[in-house]
Amino acid sequence: MDQIIVTGNGPLSGDIPIAGAKNACLTLMPATLLTDQPLTLTNAPRLSDIATMTELLRSLGSEVSALHDGQVLALSSHDLTTVRADYDIVRKMRASILVLGPLLARAGEAVVSLPGGCAIGARPVDLHLSALEAMGAELDLRDGYVYAKAPLGGLKGADITFKFASVGATENALMAATLAKGTTILRNAAREPEIVDLADCLRGMGAQIDGDGSPEITIQGVDQLGGATHRVVTDRIELGTYMLAPAICGGEVTCLGGRIDLVAAFCEKLDAAGISVVETDKGLTVSRKGDRVRAVDVITEPFPGFPTDLQAQMMALLCTADGTSVLEEKIFENRFMHAPELVRMGAHIDVHGGHATVTGVERLRGAPVMATDLRASVSLILAGLAAEGETIVSRVYHLDRGYEHVVRKLSGVGARIERVKA
Ligand code: EPZ
Fold first, then answer.
1. φ, ψ at 26 (rounded to 5°)
2. pTM, rounded to two decimals
3. Mind spelling out the 3-state secondary structure of 58-80?
4. Domain boundaries of the chain, sorted by first residue
């Protein structure tokens, strides 16, 4: 398995291009199942999760072509060959559950493996299932699969209130509702930019959707959807991740294509910590005002709150802050696995339940560490950028799920980083 070796190398300087959003692309791709017309996605990221979704859609009979070095995805689901999404693919990536709603809406039935949990939590899908049942679907859970059937006349519009603003459940219900008979209202819906991006794409395909980005989304079902060409929104989590590189190392870096509205809550915390963020027509230019950041407290919440997907990376910054920070993880039950690895690098972190208390130290020391999940892996790389000496990060396959060309992007702004075969 590959390793990434990072050596603290002082302030950074230059531009980092930000790719299209993984978590937008993973819900835009299944939208192809809603129509027999072509769907083209541009600005697509080149990631292993995208390859897994491609494999899954092809297993259902969709045609998926990756053009222009994978930055353009041409999808066509004219003739589906099966409605069964097998465990051997679904187990690789939980977002596979996002084919359930579209398959049910298009084909009237679906057999989808339950995705199971992952390192950060149990990841149930009860909210996905209850929303589809509210639209008239009959669901039977057996042998680790969801056997779903729509009523004879197809799914029906429904008034649905989510007990939690689940991103995936909102996406599944939103896609299913576009072809349901009548009006669907999604209350306490997720408000993430990836939801708005999906709604924009679906409207381009002929769907009638209002209120996306707010807690209440209204969808008027239509008889069929057409094709579209859609540009995947900028990845706000990759953006926030690379904004932390100059914050941790010093210097000045511009994240190309970045917009403050994608990371507003995150930028508020950076400002409180003493990091400057300036929006220009190129993107977001980030620099550290003094020699050391100030400690800040963080609570992760659904958008527009502080993103859980930036919690691990923010912790890496706060390990060398002046003072004590408390991070509260309110979205997932086990998302502090990066903490013991940062402690190996000399960080002072106490984890109790959903809280991590970080007492800043002057400087971390490089050490061999292990990536445990996608965002933890990049948190360790960020910590290594400013640590004294060499940090060796193993199990970097986690990284490949969500970050393209990390070594190239960070080397491009002066980091000492390389990827080696272990
Ligand atoms: C999406 O996951 C993202 N993944 C996650 O990013 C992200 O962390 C998460 O949203 C929150 O923002 C993709 O978009 C592919 P949720 P999702 O449904 O949809 C509970 C990354 O690093 N819940 O909003 O699974 C669940 O257990 C990944 O890129 C239920 O209880 O998130 C969790 O505690 C990690 N029942 C919380 O809600 C359900 O039916 C948030 O889940 C669904 C969710």
1. -70, -15
2. 0.97
3. HHCCCEEEEECCCCEEEEECCCC
4. 2-19+234-421, 22-231
Four-way CATH pick for 2-19+234-421: 1.10.510.10, 1.10.10.10, 3.40.190.10, 3.65.10.10: 3.65.10.10
Backbone region of residue 135 per phi and psi (left: phi > 0; alpha: psi in -120 to 50; beta: other values): alpha
Cα–ligand 1 centroid distance for 96 (angstroms): 13
Active site residues: 118
Please give the DSSP secondary-structure letter assigned to residue 295: P
Find, among 142, 137, 144, the residue nearest to 109 by Cα: 137
Residues with CB under 6 A from ligand 1: 23, 26, 95, 121, 123-128, 164, 166-169, 308-309, 331-332, 374-375, 402
| Ligand 1 binding pocket mutation candidate from 25, 53, 123, 401 (most atoms within 8 A of CB) | 123
**Per-residue pLDDT, 1:** 84
Of 309, 374, 400, the one to substitute when testing ligand 1's pocket (max ligand atoms within 8 A of C-beta) is 309
pLDDT at position 262: 98
- Divide the 422 residues of the chain into consecutive groups of 10 and give the mean pLDDT of each group: 94 98 98 98 97 97 95 97 95 94 98 84 89 97 95 96 98 98 98 98 98 98 98 98 98 98 98 98 95 97 98 98 98 94 98 97 97 95 96 94 96 97 84
Q: Which atom of ligand 1 is nearest to the CA of 402?
A: 29
**Do 22-231 and 2-19+234-421 have the same topology in CATH?**
yes
Cα gap 325→3, rounded to integer Å:
30
The predicted pLDDT at position 123 comes to 77
User: Which two three-digit tokens encode residue 182?
Assistant: 């009548």
Give the domain 22-231 fold. Answer: UDP-n-acetylglucosamine1-carboxyvinyl-transferase; Chain (3.65.10)
Q: Pick the residue whose CA is nearest to atom 43 on ligand 1.
A: 125
How much is the pLDDT for 118?
77
pLDDT of residue 147: 97
The reported pLDDT for the residue numbered 120 is 80
Nearest-CA residue for ligand 1 atom 31 is 124
DSSP at 108: S
Please tell me the residue having the least CA distance from ligand 1 atom 8: 309
